[in-house]
Amino acid sequence: MELIRGIHNIRAQHYGCVLTIGNFDGVHLGHAEVIKGLLQDAEKHQLPSTVMLFEPQPQEFFAKDNAPARLTRLRDKLSLLAKLGVERVICISFNQQFANMEAEQFVSQVLVEKLGVKALTVGDDFCFGKRRRGDFALLKTMGAELNMDVKSTASFRRLNDRVSSTLIRHALAAGQLEDAKTMLGHGYAISGRVIHGWAKGRELGFRTANIALKRQVCPVNGVFAVRAKVGDKELYGVANIGNKPTFNGTRALLEVHIFDFAQDIYGQFMHVELIKKLRDEKKFETLTQLTAQIADDVTAAKQCFGLN
What is the DSSP code string of the chain? Predict the structure, then answer.
Protein backbone atom coordinates (compact mmCIF):
# COMPACT_ATOMS: atom_id res chain seq x y z
CA MET A 1 0.00 0.00 0.00
CA GLU A 2 1.31 3.44 -0.96
CA LEU A 3 1.35 6.25 1.60
CA ILE A 4 1.32 9.88 0.43
CA ARG A 5 2.14 12.33 3.20
CA GLY A 6 0.62 15.73 2.51
CA ILE A 7 -1.05 17.46 -0.44
CA HIS A 8 2.36 18.69 -1.63
CA ASN A 9 3.45 15.10 -2.27
CA ILE A 10 0.56 14.30 -4.63
CA ARG A 11 2.24 13.80 -8.00
CA ALA A 12 1.02 13.56 -11.59
CA GLN A 13 1.03 9.75 -11.39
CA HIS A 14 -1.54 9.91 -8.60
CA TYR A 15 -4.12 11.56 -10.85
CA GLY A 16 -7.19 9.36 -11.29
CA CYS A 17 -8.66 7.45 -8.33
CA VAL A 18 -11.74 6.54 -6.38
CA LEU A 19 -11.71 8.09 -2.93
CA THR A 20 -13.21 8.03 0.54
CA ILE A 21 -12.46 10.62 3.23
CA GLY A 22 -12.61 10.31 7.01
CA ASN A 23 -10.74 9.78 10.27
CA PHE A 24 -11.10 5.98 10.14
CA ASP A 25 -10.37 5.88 13.87
CA GLY A 26 -10.38 2.24 14.92
CA VAL A 27 -10.94 0.99 11.35
CA HIS A 28 -14.09 -0.75 12.63
CA LEU A 29 -16.70 -2.84 10.81
CA GLY A 30 -18.52 0.29 9.62
CA HIS A 31 -15.28 1.46 8.03
CA ALA A 32 -14.75 -2.01 6.54
CA GLU A 33 -18.13 -1.70 4.77
CA VAL A 34 -17.07 1.67 3.35
CA ILE A 35 -13.82 0.16 2.10
CA LYS A 36 -15.74 -2.73 0.54
CA GLY A 37 -17.74 -0.22 -1.49
CA LEU A 38 -14.56 1.67 -2.34
CA LEU A 39 -12.95 -1.47 -3.72
CA GLN A 40 -16.05 -2.13 -5.84
CA ASP A 41 -15.77 1.40 -7.26
CA ALA A 42 -12.07 0.83 -7.93
CA GLU A 43 -12.85 -2.32 -9.90
CA LYS A 44 -15.70 -0.62 -11.79
CA HIS A 45 -13.59 2.37 -12.85
CA GLN A 46 -10.25 0.51 -13.00
CA LEU A 47 -8.69 3.12 -10.74
CA PRO A 48 -6.72 2.92 -7.46
CA SER A 49 -8.73 2.68 -4.22
CA THR A 50 -7.67 5.66 -2.12
CA VAL A 51 -8.35 6.72 1.47
CA MET A 52 -7.79 10.29 2.65
CA LEU A 53 -7.32 10.80 6.39
CA PHE A 54 -5.88 13.45 8.68
CA GLU A 55 -3.07 13.84 11.22
CA PRO A 56 -3.82 15.09 13.76
CA GLN A 57 -7.49 14.23 13.58
CA PRO A 58 -9.47 17.49 13.16
CA GLN A 59 -11.00 17.38 16.64
CA GLU A 60 -7.52 16.87 18.12
CA PHE A 61 -6.34 19.98 16.29
CA PHE A 62 -9.22 22.14 17.49
CA ALA A 63 -10.02 20.68 20.94
CA LYS A 64 -6.55 19.43 22.02
CA ASP A 65 -6.90 17.50 25.32
CA ASN A 66 -10.69 17.83 25.18
CA ALA A 67 -10.84 15.85 21.94
CA PRO A 68 -12.40 12.36 21.92
CA ALA A 69 -10.00 9.60 22.91
CA ARG A 70 -8.11 8.24 19.91
CA LEU A 71 -8.61 4.54 19.19
CA THR A 72 -5.73 4.00 16.77
CA ARG A 73 -2.48 5.68 15.90
CA LEU A 74 -1.60 6.29 12.25
CA ARG A 75 0.67 3.25 11.99
CA ASP A 76 -2.12 0.96 13.19
CA LYS A 77 -4.66 2.57 10.84
CA LEU A 78 -2.35 2.00 7.89
CA SER A 79 -1.85 -1.65 8.83
CA LEU A 80 -5.60 -2.26 9.17
CA LEU A 81 -6.43 -0.42 5.93
CA ALA A 82 -3.79 -2.42 4.07
CA LYS A 83 -5.36 -5.66 5.33
CA LEU A 84 -8.71 -4.49 3.90
CA GLY A 85 -7.10 -4.11 0.46
CA VAL A 86 -6.71 -0.33 0.17
CA GLU A 87 -4.12 0.57 -2.47
CA ARG A 88 -3.28 4.13 -1.45
CA VAL A 89 -3.60 6.38 1.61
CA ILE A 90 -3.24 10.16 1.51
CA CYS A 91 -2.41 11.51 4.97
CA ILE A 92 -3.23 15.22 5.15
CA SER A 93 -1.42 17.33 7.72
CA PHE A 94 -4.32 19.02 9.50
CA ASN A 95 -2.92 22.44 10.37
CA GLN A 96 -4.23 26.01 10.40
CA GLN A 97 -3.48 26.49 6.72
CA PHE A 98 -5.52 23.44 5.76
CA ALA A 99 -8.31 24.37 8.21
CA ASN A 100 -8.57 27.77 6.46
CA MET A 101 -9.04 26.27 2.99
CA GLU A 102 -12.46 27.08 1.55
CA ALA A 103 -14.65 24.07 0.85
CA GLU A 104 -14.99 24.86 -2.88
CA GLN A 105 -11.22 25.28 -3.16
CA PHE A 106 -10.65 21.86 -1.58
CA VAL A 107 -13.03 20.21 -4.05
CA SER A 108 -11.78 21.93 -7.19
CA GLN A 109 -8.05 22.11 -6.47
CA VAL A 110 -7.42 18.94 -4.45
CA LEU A 111 -10.13 16.44 -5.36
CA VAL A 112 -10.52 17.37 -9.01
CA GLU A 113 -7.32 19.02 -10.27
CA LYS A 114 -4.74 17.08 -8.23
CA LEU A 115 -6.44 13.72 -7.67
CA GLY A 116 -8.91 13.44 -10.54
CA VAL A 117 -11.43 11.71 -8.28
CA LYS A 118 -13.94 9.74 -10.34
CA ALA A 119 -16.06 8.43 -7.43
CA LEU A 120 -16.19 9.86 -3.90
CA THR A 121 -17.75 8.26 -0.82
CA VAL A 122 -18.32 10.21 2.42
CA GLY A 123 -20.76 10.18 5.32
CA ASP A 124 -23.93 12.18 4.76
CA ASP A 125 -22.95 14.25 7.84
CA PHE A 126 -19.46 14.97 6.45
CA CYS A 127 -18.42 18.63 6.87
CA PHE A 128 -15.22 20.19 5.57
CA GLY A 129 -13.51 23.41 4.64
CA LYS A 130 -13.18 26.71 6.46
CA ARG A 131 -15.66 26.91 9.35
CA ARG A 132 -17.03 23.53 8.15
CA ARG A 133 -19.10 25.24 5.47
CA GLY A 134 -18.74 22.35 3.04
CA ASP A 135 -21.19 19.47 3.32
CA PHE A 136 -22.59 16.51 1.42
CA ALA A 137 -25.02 18.70 -0.52
CA LEU A 138 -22.15 20.88 -1.79
CA LEU A 139 -20.19 17.79 -2.84
CA LYS A 140 -23.20 16.43 -4.74
CA THR A 141 -23.72 19.75 -6.53
CA MET A 142 -20.05 20.23 -7.44
CA GLY A 143 -19.66 16.55 -8.27
CA ALA A 144 -22.45 16.77 -10.85
CA GLU A 145 -20.73 19.76 -12.45
CA LEU A 146 -17.24 18.20 -12.38
CA ASN A 147 -18.07 14.63 -13.44
CA MET A 148 -17.35 13.22 -9.98
CA ASP A 149 -19.84 10.65 -8.67
CA VAL A 150 -20.61 11.39 -5.00
CA LYS A 151 -22.41 8.99 -2.67
CA SER A 152 -22.91 8.64 1.09
CA THR A 153 -22.06 5.72 3.32
CA ALA A 154 -24.80 3.61 4.86
CA SER A 155 -24.67 3.06 8.62
CA PHE A 156 -23.48 -0.40 9.61
CA ARG A 157 -25.21 -1.86 12.67
CA ARG A 158 -24.12 -4.26 15.39
CA LEU A 159 -25.45 -4.72 18.94
CA ASN A 160 -28.68 -3.02 17.79
CA ASP A 161 -26.90 0.26 17.20
CA ARG A 162 -24.95 2.08 14.52
CA VAL A 163 -21.32 1.06 14.65
CA SER A 164 -19.23 4.15 15.33
CA SER A 165 -15.92 5.13 16.86
CA THR A 166 -17.89 6.95 19.57
CA LEU A 167 -19.79 3.81 20.58
CA ILE A 168 -16.54 1.83 20.65
CA ARG A 169 -14.95 4.45 22.91
CA HIS A 170 -17.87 4.12 25.32
CA ALA A 171 -17.50 0.31 25.36
CA LEU A 172 -13.76 0.51 26.01
CA ALA A 173 -14.17 3.10 28.76
CA ALA A 174 -16.66 0.76 30.46
CA GLY A 175 -14.28 -2.21 30.15
CA GLN A 176 -16.64 -3.98 27.72
CA LEU A 177 -13.90 -5.40 25.52
CA GLU A 178 -16.09 -8.05 23.88
CA ASP A 179 -18.62 -5.43 22.81
CA ALA A 180 -15.80 -3.32 21.39
CA LYS A 181 -14.42 -6.36 19.55
CA THR A 182 -17.84 -7.09 18.07
CA MET A 183 -17.96 -3.58 16.59
CA LEU A 184 -14.30 -3.41 15.59
CA GLY A 185 -14.21 -6.82 13.96
CA HIS A 186 -10.92 -7.41 15.78
CA GLY A 187 -9.63 -7.26 19.33
CA TYR A 188 -8.69 -3.83 20.64
CA ALA A 189 -4.92 -3.46 20.67
CA ILE A 190 -2.23 -0.88 21.30
CA SER A 191 1.16 -1.13 19.63
CA GLY A 192 4.46 0.67 19.60
CA ARG A 193 8.16 0.36 20.31
CA VAL A 194 9.31 -0.71 23.75
CA ILE A 195 10.92 2.20 25.57
CA HIS A 196 12.78 2.66 28.84
CA GLY A 197 10.52 3.47 31.80
CA TRP A 198 11.09 4.20 35.48
CA ALA A 199 12.23 0.62 36.22
CA LYS A 200 9.78 0.60 39.15
CA GLY A 201 8.29 -2.72 38.04
CA ARG A 202 11.69 -4.37 38.19
CA GLU A 203 12.21 -3.02 41.71
CA LEU A 204 8.88 -4.55 42.75
CA GLY A 205 9.73 -7.89 41.17
CA PHE A 206 7.54 -7.49 38.09
CA ARG A 207 9.60 -6.35 35.13
CA THR A 208 7.60 -4.47 32.49
CA ALA A 209 7.90 -3.54 28.83
CA ASN A 210 6.74 0.05 28.36
CA ILE A 211 5.06 1.63 25.33
CA ALA A 212 4.32 5.34 24.97
CA LEU A 213 0.65 5.89 24.11
CA LYS A 214 1.42 8.87 21.82
CA ARG A 215 -2.10 10.24 21.77
CA GLN A 216 -3.69 13.21 23.48
CA VAL A 217 -6.42 11.12 25.13
CA CYS A 218 -6.40 7.32 25.58
CA PRO A 219 -9.74 5.44 25.45
CA VAL A 220 -8.76 2.84 28.06
CA ASN A 221 -7.42 2.94 31.60
CA GLY A 222 -6.78 0.24 34.16
CA VAL A 223 -5.30 -3.23 34.48
CA PHE A 224 -5.85 -5.86 31.78
CA ALA A 225 -5.04 -9.44 30.88
CA VAL A 226 -3.26 -9.13 27.52
CA ARG A 227 -1.93 -11.12 24.59
CA ALA A 228 1.25 -9.64 23.13
CA LYS A 229 3.29 -10.20 20.00
CA VAL A 230 6.96 -9.37 19.53
CA GLY A 231 8.13 -10.51 16.13
CA ASP A 232 6.66 -13.97 15.65
CA LYS A 233 6.43 -14.68 19.41
CA GLU A 234 2.96 -14.76 20.96
CA LEU A 235 3.14 -13.97 24.67
CA TYR A 236 0.74 -13.50 27.59
CA GLY A 237 0.81 -11.03 30.41
CA VAL A 238 -0.86 -8.39 32.51
CA ALA A 239 -0.79 -4.70 31.62
CA ASN A 240 -1.42 -1.38 33.29
CA ILE A 241 -2.58 1.58 31.23
CA GLY A 242 -2.39 4.85 33.13
CA ASN A 243 -0.05 7.27 34.83
CA LYS A 244 1.05 5.27 37.91
CA PRO A 245 -0.79 7.26 40.61
CA THR A 246 1.10 5.50 43.43
CA PHE A 247 4.24 7.18 42.06
CA ASN A 248 2.44 10.45 41.27
CA GLY A 249 3.06 9.96 37.56
CA THR A 250 1.80 12.46 35.01
CA ARG A 251 2.55 10.71 31.69
CA ALA A 252 0.27 7.84 30.68
CA LEU A 253 1.99 4.64 29.60
CA LEU A 254 1.18 1.10 28.62
CA GLU A 255 3.23 -1.17 30.92
CA VAL A 256 3.19 -4.89 30.18
CA HIS A 257 4.49 -7.60 32.51
CA ILE A 258 5.01 -10.67 30.32
CA PHE A 259 4.78 -14.02 32.07
CA ASP A 260 8.00 -16.06 32.30
CA PHE A 261 9.91 -13.74 30.00
CA ALA A 262 13.24 -11.99 30.64
CA GLN A 263 14.59 -11.04 27.19
CA ASP A 264 15.80 -7.52 26.39
CA ILE A 265 13.30 -6.16 23.85
CA TYR A 266 14.01 -2.41 24.10
CA GLY A 267 13.43 -0.76 20.73
CA GLN A 268 11.42 -3.68 19.36
CA PHE A 269 7.86 -3.30 18.12
CA MET A 270 5.19 -4.84 20.33
CA HIS A 271 1.50 -5.41 19.58
CA VAL A 272 -0.64 -5.72 22.73
CA GLU A 273 -4.24 -6.94 22.53
CA LEU A 274 -6.44 -6.29 25.57
CA ILE A 275 -8.32 -9.48 26.45
CA LYS A 276 -10.08 -8.75 29.75
CA LYS A 277 -10.23 -5.80 32.12
CA LEU A 278 -9.28 -6.86 35.63
CA ARG A 279 -9.70 -3.60 37.57
CA ASP A 280 -9.39 0.18 37.45
CA GLU A 281 -6.07 1.87 38.14
CA LYS A 282 -5.79 3.06 41.74
CA LYS A 283 -3.34 4.70 44.10
CA PHE A 284 -1.89 2.58 46.90
CA GLU A 285 -0.66 3.96 50.21
CA THR A 286 2.40 1.69 50.36
CA LEU A 287 4.59 -0.22 47.92
CA THR A 288 3.80 -3.40 49.88
CA GLN A 289 0.11 -2.96 49.06
CA LEU A 290 0.93 -2.29 45.41
CA THR A 291 3.18 -5.35 45.16
CA ALA A 292 0.50 -7.59 46.68
CA GLN A 293 -2.11 -6.24 44.24
CA ILE A 294 0.18 -6.81 41.24
CA ALA A 295 0.65 -10.41 42.38
CA ASP A 296 -3.13 -10.80 42.51
CA ASP A 297 -3.42 -9.23 39.05
CA VAL A 298 -0.87 -11.71 37.66
CA THR A 299 -2.83 -14.60 39.12
CA ALA A 300 -6.11 -13.29 37.70
CA ALA A 301 -4.59 -12.74 34.26
CA LYS A 302 -3.06 -16.21 34.18
CA GLN A 303 -6.47 -17.66 35.00
CA CYS A 304 -7.86 -15.92 31.90
CA PHE A 305 -5.43 -17.91 29.77
CA GLY A 306 -5.59 -21.16 31.76
CA LEU A 307 -1.97 -20.80 32.82
CA ASN A 308 -2.37 -21.42 36.58
Answer: -EEEESGGG--GGG-SEEEEES--TT--HHHHHHHHHHHHHHHHHT--EEEEEEES-HHHHHHGGGSPPPS--HHHHHHHHHHTT--EEEEEE--HHHHTS-HHHIIIIIIIIIT-EEEEEE-TT--BSGGG-B-HHHHHHHHHHHT-EEEEPPPPEETTEE--HHHHHHHHHTT-HHHHHHHHSS--EEEEEEE----HHHHHT---EEEE--SSS-S--EEEEEEEEETTEEEEEEEEEE--GGGT--S-EEEEEETT-----TT-EEEEEEEEEEE-----SSHHHHHHHHHHHHHHHHHHTT--
